[in-house]
Write a structure and sequence with these properties.
3 domains; ten-stranded mixed sheet; 19 strands; 30% strand; alpha/beta; D-Amino Acid Oxidase, Chain A, domain 2; elongated; binds flavin-adenine dinucleotide; 25% helix
């Protein structure tokens, strides 16, 4: 196994996978360092939607929604085994915070951004008399139900597939391998990492930190570090319940007005998500009892005829962490744009990727490649400057711990 690469990508979540795939496709020598397993972090704990994010229109994030809808179109066309369209139903009640006109307006803008005349953009109202179409939805004070389409995926499987594409194109996956420290010298970045209980060293021209909720911790191990803005972690929980409701996704309002999805998943139903600030170790985030009870209450409110479920009857519950810019506003309305920062604007050696969406991983990867391109192009023959350390313990063979 080599100890010299053009780029080391730290983290094998969807962002690291996308960046590694794009860099190998551009002909660069890439290694990916992952401390646990592919998709160990947020990339296996999301809502599993490939979507523009209708709710982001409320906070005016039009360019994000537009970009994500463009990516949705590409993923539907190019990864049909993993990404498929699903009907979404939005019920509007007398008590709903978002009135009928607002939902219609949101769906019209969403359709416009998706490409008005595309079949993926259409929405319509569902007849309230069509009980079968409503799948047991509470119809007390129900004013209207809108149906539109968005896409669903298996987030961990998508991440594994993107990593496999990168590995097939020549990237080396070091897994489990954990970053210990990275130091930028004149010509390269010297990286120390643990693999199989041993300290190893490699050299690269640039390091891309795609460690999601660990991004600040990883950045603090780099000298110099990337100039990240103040960030905050926000936990989001999903519960999986042993009920099969429908092959549709319901987009409902919880008691506090937040949007919650009720989705088909693995023959059962997934309900999520919540939002709470998180200050602990990212590896230890778990759903709280309050979050699970809140999601069960939401399910019962909208599907009153389902069998009452106790907390100990859940098939699964998991929590993931969003990386958001620090602000005093409600996490719900904060920017979901990807933040791409570096140690040096002109000649970046340490790049950090924070936040963003599963849906837009390719757009993020393109931005990272664009940021690194001038530096990678300028230094064609850099290896002469990188000393081969006799004391380095090379890791065995190309790891494929997928
Ligand atoms: C609750 C929730 C729901 C979401 N739903 C959606 C959705 O429906 N659609 C959508 O588009 N987006 C969604 N998102 C956003 C999306 O899931 C995330 O943006 C994305 O998964 C983040 O991927 P990542 O690669 O940045 O981080 P991660 O997936 O967390 O990957 C980081 C990786 O870095 C590794 N790592 C950390 N430190 C080190 C180290 N020192 N050395 C080596 N490796 C290290 C970790 O083990 C981990 O595997 C959701 C997010 C949350 C929290």
């Amino acid at each position: 196994m080599s100890t010299e690469y053009d780029v080391l990508v730290v983290g094998a979540g969807i962002q690291g996978a996308g960046v590694a795939e794009a860099l190998t496709a551009a002909g660069h020598r890439v290694a990916i360092l992952e401390q646990e397993s592919v998709a160990y972090g947020t990339s296996s704990r999301s809502s599993k939607l490939i979507h523009g994010g209708l709710r982001y229109l409320e906070s005016g994030q039009f360019s994000l929604v537009y970009e994500c809808l463009k990516e949705r179109r590409w993923l539907l066309a190019n990864k049909p085994d993993l990404v498929h369209m699903v009907p979404f139903l939005i019920p509007v009640y007398r008590h709903s915070r978002r009135p009928t006109w607002k939902v219609r307006l949101g769906l019209s803008i969403y359709a416009l951004l998706a490409g008005l005349f595309s079949s993926q953009a259409r929405f319509r109202s569902v007849s309230l008399q069509d009980y079968e179409a409503l799948c047991g939805l509470n119809n007390d004070d129900l004013l209207a139900v809108y149906r539109y389409y968005d896409a669903q995926t298996d987030d961990a499987a998508l991440t594994r597939e993107v990593i496999q594409t990168a590995v097939r194109s020549g990237a080396e996956l070091i897994c489990p391998g954990s970053l210990v420290g990275a130091e930028v010298t004149d010509k390269f970045v010297r990286v120390d990492y643990f693999h199989k209980g041993q300290l190893n060293t490699l050299h690269c021209r640039a390091l891309v930190n795609c460690t999601g909720p660990w991004v600040e911790e990883t950045n603090s191990k780099c000298a110099p570090s990337a100039k990240l803005p103040p960030l905050e972690l926000v936990a989001g929980t999903h519960i999986q319940v042993p009920l099969k409701l429908a092959n549709k996704i319901f987009y409902v309002e919880a008691e506090d007005g937040r949007a919650v999805f009720v989705m088909p998943w693995q023959g059962e139903t997934l309900v999520g998500t919540t939002e709470r600030p998180y200050h602990g170790d990212p590896s230890e985030v778990t759903p709280t009892l309050e979050e699970k009870a809140y999601l069960l209450r939401t399910l019962k409110q909208y599907f009153p005829e389902t069998r009452p479920l106790q907390l100990n009857e859940l098939s699964d519950a998991f929590a993931g962490l969003r990386v958001l810019p620090h602000a005093s506003s409600n996490p719900f309305s904060r920017s979901r744009e990807t933040m791409i920062c570096s140690d040096n604007d002109k000649h970046p050696r340490i790049v950090a990727v924070a936040g963003g969406k599963l849906t837009s991983y390719r757009a993020t990867a393109r931005s990272v490649v664009k940021k690194l391109r001038p530096m990678l192009a300028a230094e064609q023959d850099w290896t002469a400057a990188a000393p081969l350390h006799k004391s380095d313990t090379p890791v065995d063979a190309k790891e494929r711990n997928l």
